[in-house]
Write a structure and sequence with these properties.
This protein is of the alpha/beta class and about 170 residues long. About 40% of the residues lie in helices and about 15% in strands. The protein has 7 helices and 5 strands.
Length: about 170
């Protein structure tokens, strides 16, 4: 098993969150599959960290990614994705979750700021997550994506390259 020092167990979320409150540290939370980590992900994570003092990242489990993206995903298993994210300096905590949304986790985390990147808006945000964020008075921020960087586009480019090979 790979060492993942920033992983936060579900059972530890409440105590760790309370400690951040006592230290007057603003908690930023974001989440995603991070199926094939690329510059667009890293850019968004660095920008998310700028929104507060501490950045926790929710990572969809393999079961969750399959439910959201289909049977051919994830590309990398959850432990590999967690390990890659664990290496990023901007991330302070990682939370693995099984659902297709993270409303249950948000209820415990109660972030000060919630960040989504890509082409999300208040209207396209998961309604369960949005309700929970409004309930805990989190500030919701959207980071515009880096043009031409997405896992879907990266996979399409890889397929294109392999189709051209003799």
């Amino acid at each position: 098993m790979l060492p993942i020092s920033k992983r936060i167990a579900f059972s530890d979320i409440t105590a760790k969150r309370e400690q951040l409150r006592q230290n007057n540290q603003a908690l930023v939370f974001t989440n995603g599959c991070f199926d094939l980590l690329h510059i667009g992900h890293v850019y968004a994570l660095v920008k998310a960290k700028e929104e507060g003092d501490i950045l926790w990242v929710g990572v969809n489990s393999d079961v969750s990614v399959r439910a959201l993206k289909g049977s051919t995903r994830p590309i990398y298993p959850q432990e590999a994705r967690l390990y890659l994210l664990n290496a990023l300096q901007c991330i302070d905590g990682l939370i693995l979750f099984d659902g297709t949304d993270c409303a249950r986790e948000l209820a415990l985390i109660q972030p000060d700021v919630y960040v989504k990147s890509g082409h999300y808006s208040l209207e396209t945000l998961n309604p369960n997550e949005r309700r929970m964020l409004e309930k805990c008075n989190a500030r919701i921020r959207f980071i515009p994506p880096l043009p031409n960087w997405s896992t879907t586009k990266t996979l399409a480019r890889i397929r294109e390259l392999f189709e051209k090979e003799p």
